[in-house]
Amino acid sequence: MSYFPSINKIQYEGTDTKNMFAFRHYNPDEVVMGKKMKDHLRFAIAYWHTMTQDGSDPFGNPVNQRPWFGETPMETAKNRVEAFFEICEKLGAEYFCFHDVDIAPEGDSLEEFFANVDEITDLIKEKMDQTGIKLLWNTANMFSNPRFVNGAASTNNAEVYAIAAAQVKKGLDISKKLGGENYVFWGGREGYETLLNTNMKLEQDNIARLFKMAIAYGEKIGHKPQFLLEPKPKEPSKHQYDFDAATTMAFIQHYGLEGDFKLNLEANHATLAGHTFEHEIAVARCYDSLGSLDANQGDVLLGWDTDEFPTNVMDVTLAMYEVLENGGIAPGGINFDSKVRRSAFEAEDLFLAHIAGMDTFARGLKNAAKLKEDRFFDDLKEERYASFNEGLGKKIMNDEEDLESLYDYAVSHEDPVLKSSHIEYVKNILNDYL
Length: 434
Prior knowledge:
single chain; alpha/beta; TIM Barrel; 2 domains; 14 strands; 46% helix; 11% strand
């Protein structure tokens, strides 16, 4: 059966179209810088916001109208698989992502939960084989269940730690079964409420232990997806151990996880950390650790994770420029960790929202490509740092100077003449690319 019989496969129709259910900018086979647009972007649909988010908020009950609810939780779960792949196919998305609890009910025990997961992933694999849609990444939800009130890998309870480990093992088994290209750890409660009763070193040591167990188990079963850590500064914990890209890279390096872990970066998490999305991507690039992106946007007027569909062309352009500078994002992708607004409650809004996000990233990609072709940022930076290409600067770059020689130079020369950045002019010209 079709859950969306009135919606056809979404096609590219250009900016003149009046069809709501059409791409205005995303043309998957259009070649940009020698590669098809769809291969640059590697779009993925998030199972959680698409299939399980109900439109409720702290002040209101569920409002979303969804056609897939059955008589039992497992019937609903099976219906969701059918509806989800219909959405992916009609949007032309070639990848998807999920948490374990998104796809199957937890039941009354861990054993029942894992049995449910096995049954539903059998159905998912059938749909993957039928459609060619691939698993970008999966992960374990180790933050929603009350047992994780004090964290999962960072818990104070060894039995809870064992359950977290069991979920990760099951997650990797699922990843192998479905051919997952990445596996994400998002530490939803891996942090602390107060230091008064927290052993920070023990908690972080235990998190690293779990990651190393995952690496070892992946090698044992002959499945080594790209492991990803997803930084987030706060919410739900007051302080998350993976606060931002730089903090997370410090963790990775401290525990010797380089080469096994990269970063899955989310735009809204960057906002909460007081950074821009492009900043977080640039940090990951500096460490050769850009893994994948969660595409959304936050509201700077609100202090929580609003997970809006990305529609800010400037922000996405700058993010995509960093991706192009990285040489692409594969085996990662661009996952729409985004949910429709509470007022957009009709089922068809799932399509309209994803169209908006995909169009925005298409525009950002084309803008970023033009910026690279014109060497817009390259020329700015070359001019700004020109003093390091000759004379004293070149000697500094070649490690031919020390503190004594630079002291002698500084005291024997007049103050340098500085040049204006003309940054307002730069931003004005940048707007022309949008």
